[in-house]
Amino acid sequence: MKKLYFGSNLKMYKTIRETTEYLTSLARLTEDISREETELFIIPSYTALERACASVDQNLIRLGAQNMCWEEQGQFTGEISPLMLQETGVRLVMIGHSERRHVFGETDEEENKKVSCALQHGFTALLCIGETAEDKKYAVGPEVLRMQLKKGLSGIDADGTDRLWVAYEPVWSIGVNGTPATADYAERMHGEIKRCLLELFPETGAQIPVLYGGSVNPGNAEELIVQPSIDGLFVGRAAWQADKFNELIRSAQKAAGR
Ligand code: 13P
Questions:
Q1: Quick one: which of 11, 34, 87, 107 is 20 to 30 A from 144 by CA?
Q2: Cα torsion for 78, 81, 83, 87, to the nearest 10°?
Q3: Segments forming the whole domain that contains residue 151
Q4: Which of 39, 99, 110, 169 is catalytic?
Q5: Radius of gyration of the chain (CA)
Q6: Domain count, the chain
Q7: Tell me, what CATH number does 44's domain have?
Q8: Atom 3, ligand 1: which residue's CA is nearest?
Q9: Model pTM?
Q10: Which sign does the torsion angle of CA 165, 171, 172, 177 carry?
Q11: How far apart are CA 11 and CA 241, in angstroms?
């Protein structure tokens, strides 16, 4: 039985106190869920990371950072280095979120340096990819995803892929103005991503989990999670109340026969 992944990116929401309350509550609500079969993770803001790590057992809820610089130190004002993240205790680093790429102009080349640096420093790297509405209009989504994977994972050693996760988050599906991808569409794109990962890493590519994100909600979580190429759900707004996220996780698990 494949492992399922459920996680949330808290974006620029929740103070330190709100984050620790949320995590404590989510850990309590989900404590009976088997962590052999299900991986839960939360990605709070930088300022909350140290306290978050002290307030929750990462064997129950893995914690991650929303971004990371590719250098250990230097003249990079405003950036956070892998050594600084190691100090906080997080085990996961998200790289290339749609908002990093499209609001802050990050490139595939930069994401590649970050993935490589995150893996070298012992983190699990969650690389986010996704096509824009224009890419979709011209039906070049698969080509764009392949390019993001090939560039973003360039030079990555197959040995590191046991700490690599991919999130497919179509840009047009994310946030308050987003429209969720249909389960059929998401499954097709996930299939494309999985084929590409297998081409890049013939020995280990099939093991890399591929999560869907973008307007996941209680109304579509079940049909998405039952798709054969979808290994998990990466949720924004619908996960930011612990009880609501717990319900979503449980209904998705049930739909997936758990
Ligand atoms: P929403 O679920 O709010 O659309 O956000 C998804 C997301 O960006 C997760 O990283």
A1: 11
A2: 50
A3: 4-257
A4: 169
A5: 17
A6: 1
A7: 3.20.20.70
A8: 236
A9: 0.98
A10: positive
A11: 14
